[in-house]
Amino acid sequence: MSTTRPTPQEVRTTERRAHAANGYFALMGMLGLWVLAAFMAAGAHHLIGAVLSVVLSLLVGAGLYMQQPNEGRVMTLFGRYIGTDREPGLRWANPFAGKQRLSLRSRNLTSPTLKVNDKRGNPIEISAAVVWRVSDTAQALFDVDSYETYVQIQAEAALRHTANLYAYDDGEDLQHGETTLRAGQDEVAAAMKAELQERFAAAGVEVLDAKLTHLAYAPEIAQVMLRRQQAEAIISARQRIVHGAVSMVESALKGLSEREIVVLDDERKAAMVSNLLVVLCSDKDTQPIVNAGTLYN
Length: 297
Known about the structure:
Pfam families: Band_7 (PF01145). By secondary structure, this protein is an alpha+beta fold.
């Protein structure tokens, strides 16, 4: 019967608790061995016992280490992972085990400004800040070559991929309510955080936060896109002005009719509407003209 061996990608190292103890008891034991060695050395017939006590005290002292809060000691014994100690203070563990210190604190990663293409293919400049920390010490040290380099490279890859999924700004080619990089930064940040977590999982790293820190069009198209945005803003403003002017003209005609101030036929109403729209929609000051005649002369 044949068995299928797991591929290297399927083998994951999982953190487990190391067999470590309070270091103060070990320190007291080491001092006691020194006292015992001194007592035995006083008698000529106990030199061997004194030497053994000194050697044993040195072994006990070799297992002592001081650990700060939010730190971990990853221990290996003859090339085999035996566990991680996360308890702060003076600690003691197997003196023959290797003890590698690993920070568990939150860290900031600011990606360099990248030049990528958005969903439309327009070149943009983008960068992000990522807050992360090591959640599985065994994966961080044994499943990737250098977890810090791994995090940096994967963060840039995730940022590039996220930028390709969204357009920089709204446009006629987008569906109504579609998320864009400029207007939907919260949604973009949430999507980028989810992708970062998926990529960082292989290194035992947890993503705490991710935000865009820089977003702009690339210099070669910045001026063109700026004129486009200005044109869209002007069109939007004109639409609002025209809508408001029409409402004001309608209100004016209705008021004149209801109060019977003046009776206007269709031709005079058209002339009045034309004059009012010119006054209300013009972006320059209008000059009044006194008409001494009538519309029919």
